[in-house]
Design a protein that fits this description.
The structure holds 4 protein chains of 4 kinds. Chain A is of the alpha+beta class. Among the domains of chain A are: about 50 residues, Uridine Diphospho-n-acetylenolpyruvylglucosamine Reductase, domain 2 (2-Layer Sandwich), CATH 3.30.43; about 110 residues, CO dehydrogenase flavoprotein, C-terminal domain (Enolase-like, domain 1). In chain A, about 35% of the residues lie in helices and about 25% in strands. Chain A has 11 helices and 14 strands. In chain A, a hairpin with a 2-residue loop joins strand 8 and strand 9. Chain A starts with a strand and ends with a helix. The mean pLDDT of chain A is about 95. By secondary structure, chain B is α+β, with helices and mostly antiparallel strands. Chain B has one domain: Roll (Ubiquitin-like (UB roll)), CATH 3.10.20.30. In chain D, helix 7 crosses helix 8. The mean pLDDT of chain D is about 95. The chains are: A alpha+beta, B alpha+beta, C alpha+beta, D alpha+beta. Chains C and D meet through helix 2, helix 3, helix 4 and helix 5 of C and helix 1 and helix 18 of D.
Chain lengths: ~290, ~80, ~160, ~750
Amino acid sequence: MRFEAPTTVNAAVKLLAGKAGVVRVLAGGTDLLVQMRTDRVAPDLIVDVKRIPSLRTVSAKAGAFRIGAAVAGAELGEHKALRKAWPGVVEAANLIGSHQIQSRATLAGNLCNASPAADSVPALVAAGASAVIAGPRGKRTVPIEAVATGPGKTSLKRGEMVEAILLPKRPPRSGDAYLRFIPRSEMDIAVVGAGVNLTLDAKGVCTAARVALGAVAERVILVPDAAKALIGTTVDAQALERLAAVASAACRPIDDKRGTKEFRIKVAGVLARRAAETALKRARGT
Amino acid sequence: MVQVMLSGPLKAAAGGRAEVEVEAATIHQLLSRLEKDHPKLKPLIERGVAVAIDGQIYRDDWLRPIPPGSEVVLLPRMAGG
Amino acid sequence: MMPKVQVSTTINGDAVSYLCEVDETLLDVLRDRLGLTGSKEGCGTGDCGACSVMLDGRVVCSCLVLGAEAEGRDVRTVEGIATADKLHPLQEKFLEFAALQCGICTPGFLISAKELLDRNPNPTETEIRFGLAGNLCRCTGYDKIVRAVQAAAAEMRKG
Amino acid sequence: MPLDANLDPRTHEFKVVGTRPLRPDGVDKVTGRAKFGADANAPGMLVGKILRSPHPHARVRSINTAKAAKLPGVKAIVTRDDFPASVDPSLRDVLYNVMAREKALYDGHAVAAVAATSAAVARKALKLIQVDYEILPHVTDVDAAMKPGAPILHKDMITENVEPAPKKASNIAGRHEFGHGDPEVGFKQANHVVERVFKTEATHQGYIEPHACLASVGTDGTGELWVCTQGHFMVRDTCAALVGMDVSKLRVTASEIGGGFGGKTTVFIEPVALALSRKAGKPVKLVMSREEVFRASGPTSSTSMTVKVGVTNAGRITGGYAELRFQGGAFTGSPVVLGAMSAFACYDLEHVKVVGYDVVTNRPKQAAYRAPGAPMAAFAVESVIDELAKKIGMDPIELRLKNAAKEGTKSSYGPKYNSIGLIDCLEAARKHPHYSAPLGPNQGRGVAAGFWFNFGGQTCVSLNVNIDGTVALVVGTPDIGGSRASMCLMAAEELGIPYDKVRAIVADTSSLGYNDISEGSRVTFSTGLATINAARDAVTKLCARAAKIWGIPADAVVWENGHAKPSGPNAGNFEPLSLEDLAKKAAKTGGPIAGHCEVNADGAGVSFAVHMADAEVDRETGRVQIKRYTVVQDAGKAIHPSYVEGQFQGGAAQGIGWAINEEYIYGKDGRLQNPGFLDYRIPVASDLPMIDTVIVEVPNPGHPYGVRGVGETSIVPPLAAIANAVSAAAGVRMTQLPMSAPHVLKAMDGAKGGGARR
């Protein structure tokens, strides 16, 4: 087993694409170290990307944001402009684990761990965020929903790593929110998660929306029909009930130790509705 | 003579009798008499029992005197957490 | 035999160098190589907070940090909270309020509470409870811990 | 003062008892200096690791350790063959739980262990041990295990206490019946009879410190063991028997203990560490991972219970019946007997009967958990009492007061009660502002009472007077919640010196006589009693020294406020001698001065508690939150009130976790699915409100200061109090624990569909 801490993306990509057998990127390490301890992975090479300066910063340009892949949740929470523009994304990121975890865990890590229950992913998908992926053949930018393909599986090829997460510029009168259900008040994995992002016109009619659900399928799902339930409405009670029904209908969950199918389907609708209500408040600036 | 109330498994071992009489001035005498009179009680007593005298539970106190006319109950041995 | 990693770091203000295995956690290094057993392992998976330490000014679970990652960093443990002749107000209030019974979770709570008060000198009860949610205590029901943190915060605001 | 003198705590003016000084071990515990189980090291120490069965039920055909033994760095490997073929019957199950024999009986059952030069080598070695398993059908549910045709764990298990004895083996170890009168007669006198079936899942004590020990056995066969345990004398005697050593050759030191709650009252890894160390000829440190703690140390029982209670419209409970079915894991000994004895202990009943079944399943052997068996039984009984109160439109505390056990009541487990405090607790609860506070929307309030026996046991204490008049107090019961502080308070009280002049330590097994385990809420009661008597013994000797110095008879000297004084004018006129004066002169007046007490402390007083909980239910998700909680409990006499409150609050918090989120989840494959703190959800700080406490003091006649144990009773009422609160808030009677969101949501939806209303 080898440990490397390169200082440039190119050096990191070289190591990742190299001959070493099992290679893992170490960002926050909050998933990797647990997997190592529980014998789920035994890397031959660990590449710590936290010493790459460009991965450690959040930058804003013309209202859009670039979040380095090694920026920790706590740092996102402390970024005022980001919190103001994308409160749903930041609150989702900040829901991941305790303060201890927040000091380490990253959006990119949450994304690449590819858990269907990842808290930040539904919020990012709803936000229309994308991931910048660096690899031996250069860089490519893909929508967030195209990264995870199934539990623990991603579309990243050998030698590739997520370098940054991009969040687009917000139109006026936009708001987003993320809600999850957990049995405790903290320290749990989402049993169901719902992210909603919407934009209103001057009359308060919803002109654009994205709704994403977590922990109700093999990966986080974008639910266009749920968005349709909001678009063209003032997001009134009727639209919200329709949203809830469509969201529930879109679920294809499993029974597991954290919850039943029945429970997840019902609660997915409830959370989608409640998240939409919060997003609406934020869009109205109330 | 001491009236001994039997409870739980001890009652079953004494052929379902809820109350027996023995001549005993101490817990030790009580237990040895019971073992003699009711052989099926012997293994249970060896595994451990408690004796309540006037509501006070004694787990291991052979020499504890049994005041005449006191209420005596034989219980399974108990332990807490 | 795995090649060991050579690490130079700062622990409780002192320069420290050590060799460790690649897969060895900072917690293992602190406890088994440096004799700093104040940080405890309750789970090894970041769920209990008993191993909490400060890493470059942020509270982390040292069981989720590799020893190799500490190169050039600043690590603070429970052993570094008190000065030679004086306990930290949090330590004093934990004792005064009987905020510990068995005491195994106490080092982690002290680290988290200290970080919480550094960030927020005047937290509400709710902020304290969520701020300490990463630290499990099975003995106290948290009541006396929360009160001790509130009292220490008041004391520290007096300065 | 005579050794058996009892002070009336209601009239006696205590000087230090009842104050709240800092604990003697406090500074070490806030600075990281305190040494717990895993904090000790030894020169040349090896790391031990245990191989555990992945199968819930399998015959172990063979274990091949050849490959592992060849791995460089491996110094010793032990299997079942390294332990005695036969031991005392009372220890057989303990031995077979420590290391599987013919069969692995649960997921996590130890089958082999290695000691190696590093953790990495030890882990690698475990992978090289080849175990040939013959997989057998398994059963983990208590009701399923009782059914005919269930997989049988022990072919020689014939149900005890059944006449005539069954011919066939089963998973039912024993049947246990308690009570008096005839419930059927009682039910005929009732206006309302409610019968319900309840289920609870297994929960773990959840101590934050995993089991850990450091064993060192020399070539001369003498051994030392450093271990976190509630009873190091028990560890010494048990290990000596299991590994075949003389008790005199094994010295056990109790480390600081990071929580136990009953779970550290037996041995798991200690005999294995000793066997490894003996074989390797080197010290071996063995520490369980959190996963091992959940899979292989003792949770408490999961249960299935039927309860039937009758009441008149006037609120008289006419009869109570309960059938309790507890599975205690792979071996005999679920706490069903204690559950059966305590189920109706709060009530004065003419007709009461409880039948308990002790059942084995393919789960880890249960270990004691705070008031073993009582919380589940109380959950079932107190839920039905609550339902009956609603049926007859009576306040639930009023109904309990009308039927409460009091001095002279014949208890449901046999004996008559002497002085007890249930009525005092009920009255205090009814008076508490919490009881009349308004509730918010979707909130409900629940009340429940609880009972626990409390125990005493063998105890030995030495009290040494130092040359400067300070006192070294030597006890043998591990301090699991601040007991050293309470012992110092009681010694200071008797000696009439300041608290900080007394220092208490927990001695190792070679430095003090035998002490029973710190269990059964016994420490403040029995070690306290022994401490008081040791202090009084020292006082007698101090007075004798003063008498010698003054040349007057010993009985002409009295002890007051830390001084020896002539008993009166005709005893002579001498300046009082302080403890310090006498200590300084000790060498010249007859040598060291020490007080001792060796006692088998019986007469612990039973205790009662009444809890109140406000629960809020999210009607759309079923999520339950506890908004307010109050504990009222009889402590007899609170020695250090802060740590009494701490026991009240800690028990309540564990009960809240048990009621709402904690559960052992087994898959169809019989494997534990949640062996970690992520999915075994003990309450975190943000889950709980402040927990209000009321200390009631009804003295225990069995203790010089009136002390009753307080450690366990506090976990008895919460399950029921919270179930009653949630049932009120959800509008449907909750009969299954934990009341996790999916259960509550399902129950509410069922109720909408015309299901049982509360």
